[in-house]
Amino acid sequence: MIRRPDPSLLDLHDALLLDLDGTLMHGAEPIPHAAEAVETARAAGCTVVFATNNASRTPQQAAEHLAVVGIAAQPEEFITSPQVAARLLAARLDAGAKVLVVGGPSLAAQMREVGLSPVDTDSEDVAAVVQGWSPDLDWRRLAEGAYAIRHGAYWMATNVDATLPTERGLAPGNGAMVAALRHATGKEPAVAGKPEPGMFEVAAREHRARRPLIIGDRLDTDIEGAVRAGMESLLVLTGVDGIEEALRAEPIRRPSFILPDLARLTAPFPLPVVDGDRARCGAVSAVWRDGDIAVHGDQDDPRVLRAVLALLREHSAQSAWTGRLHPQPLAARAPAER
Predict the structure, then answer these.
(1) Would you tell me how many other CB atoms lie within 10 Å of the CB of residue 290?
(2) Are 89 and 64 in contact, with CB atoms under 8 Å apart?
């Protein structure tokens, strides 16, 4: 009997919903293999959507920034947290309502596009505050936001990412600035972007994707948003979170798959098969033993990780895993998948 070849990730999914910072780039520095992966996906007929919480750029500006790191993109391929925030606020507020923008010009532009009136100073008729990351955000603008929130304005954050990956390391993200206003006002904002599922749901619906794959580097935004949207997710190890964090995560932040980067989207991608306490993935396997997991294969082999994640979905579906990994000898090791 001739064994059918394993499908690739691109065979298994009809759309890739890609995070930007930490997944495709670090600031103005490209992440290796990312540009080639995007072009490979397009050539294979897979829809590519860029889903970002970054509120500092319009879709046009984001497309121009991707060009700097070697990735061609069109504005209509983006879904951003400011776009989602603008739609949600437009649905909630009267046309022309004043929205105090605690963020940059691109966030204000999104408010205008949906018929709202962005302002930068508090007044009695400010109906809402929208907050998004900007490199120029200062104390004065934060103070204006605090005044408006305290007098009852509705508060929406584009996202609550604590950090932002840059070419120099992790910098404070919008969540850090949101924390300042939360501490100053005692209030809690509504959140438009990841990990809320709306961004992914809108993108999948607008692009008619039936089997989307969410790809990102953060468990608390990309992966949680995918889980909440009921979509498969891939954690790439090029940004914030790593293998240990992923295996120990609460189920709502547990990825479907883990890969070092985007280099092998077209490579054979065997899926794990679970039989009771054992999961096999290609030539490697993992066994559940009273809360611990014995792995037969290299611990950093993505196939081993897929087998381990499959066991966690089966045996630790309601809580974070607290056991230990136990490497076991593999009589005839197959080359590790990279």
Answers:
(1) 6
(2) no
Q: Which two tokens stand for residue 187?
A: 């209030």
Residues 211-237 have pLDDT tens digits of 999 999 999 999 999 999 999 999 999
Contacts of 31 (CB under 8 A, 6+ apart): 22, 23, 24, 25, 69, 238, 261, 262
* Pair of tokens at residue 136: 């120029």
- Report the Cα 223 to chain-centroid distance in Å: 6
Domains of the chain: 9-53+195-259 (3.40.50.1000), 88-191 (3.40.50.1000), 273-328 (no CATH)
Of residues 6, 11, 14, 19, which has the active-site annotation?
A: 19
To the query of whether residue 21 is one of the catalytic residues in this protein, the response is: yes
Q: Which of 6, 11, 14, 21 is catalytic?
A: 21
For residue 101 the two structure tokens come to 């923008």
pTM of the model: 0.83
Q: Which residues fall within 8 angstroms of residue 73, CB to CB, at 6 or more apart? A: 38, 48, 50, 62, 63, 66, 67
- Identify whether the C-beta of residue 205 lies closer than 8 Å to the C-beta of residue 223: no
Establish whether 19 is a catalytic residue.
yes
